[in-house]
């Protein structure tokens, strides 16, 4: 029997991503204006090994794309399959919601993938950086939750990772779903639960083995998880994909 990490009601707000977009945008501007790291609330003990702060290793793959692939970007209006009238100058709350839903399939998208799946946006260096930063933030929240629940399991006496599972009724899944699928109007793929369970067990094994004494101990986990991305469904390439994906 799996460890019981213990439905939702829909978010009553008509645009639950609006405030998130503001926070994500402010976060990017702050990051670009200073060399400071990304912080989540009072989780100060995560700062030294926070996923967004490691330039090397697998977690740095997407972040390094800002330098390697965002130089002279081709104007997406020239290659977009959609008419020029649909090209937007900036990112909207719907783009943020779409990115969060894509996280259920891919944790480490390349900048080229992002250009394919956000073809209704006129890309420039800032837009690319913003999208990459969004996924960096998504990953940081994801890994913080994994470490939190792994340590909780250890504190409660769990001794083997076979006792750890992630189901739709589990508390860990609920925390993740509330963050990426706030309105609970998207059917999360089963594969995401499998990846979440693998991630949880990786953190559990590393902590039990005492590897967390090394400041870079999470990098080995990132290398495992970055290989578990799934193919994002083609429907996500459509600017109107949310209308097709979301249920009432």
Automatic annotation (TrEMBL):
Does the record carry Nucleus as a key word? yes
Q: List keywords of the entry alphabetically.
A: DNA-binding, Homeobox, Nucleus, Transcription, Transcription regulation
Q: Where is this region: Disordered?
A: 1-24, 37-60
Write down the InterPro entries for this protein, in alphabetical order. Homeo_prospero_dom, Homeo_prospero_dom_sf, Homeodomain-like_sf, Prospero_homeodomain
* Protein's recorded name: Prospero domain-containing protein
| Source superkingdom | Eukaryota
Q: Which residues form the Prospero domain?
A: 88-246
Any idea where this protein resides? Nucleus
Q: Name one Pfam family in it.
A: HPD
């Amino acid at each position: 029997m799996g460890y019981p990490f213990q439905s939702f009601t829909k978010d009553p707000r008509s645009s639950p991503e609006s405030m998130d977009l503001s926070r994500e945008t402010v976060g990017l501007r702050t990051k670009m204006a200073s060399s400071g790291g990304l912080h989540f609330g009072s989780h100060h003990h995560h700062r030294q090994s926070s996923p967004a702060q490691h330039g090397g290793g697998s977690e740095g793959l997407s972040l390094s794309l800002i330098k390697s692939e965002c130089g002279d970007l081709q104007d997406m209006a020239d290659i977009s399959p959609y008419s020029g009238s649909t090209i937007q100058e900036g990112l909207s709350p719907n783009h943020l919601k779409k990115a969060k839903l894509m996280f259920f399939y891919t944790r480490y998208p390349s900048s080229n993938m992002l250009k394919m799946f956000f073809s209704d946006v006129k890309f420039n260096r800032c837009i690319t950086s913003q999208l990459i930063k969004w996924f960096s933030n998504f990953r940081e929240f994801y890994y913080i939750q994994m470490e939190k629940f792994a340590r909780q399991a250890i504190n409660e006496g769990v001794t083997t990772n076979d006792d750890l599972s992630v189901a739709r009724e589990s508390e860990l899944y609920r925390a993740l779903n509330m963050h990426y699928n706030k309105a609970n109007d998207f059917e999360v793929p089963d594969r995401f639960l499998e990846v979440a369970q693998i991630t949880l067990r990786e953190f559990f094994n590393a902590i039990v083995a005492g590897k967390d004494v090394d400041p870079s101990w999470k990098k080995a986990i990132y290398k495992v998880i970055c290989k578990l991305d799934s193919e994002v469904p083609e429907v996500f390439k459509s600017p109107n994909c949310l209308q097709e994906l979301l249920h009432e």
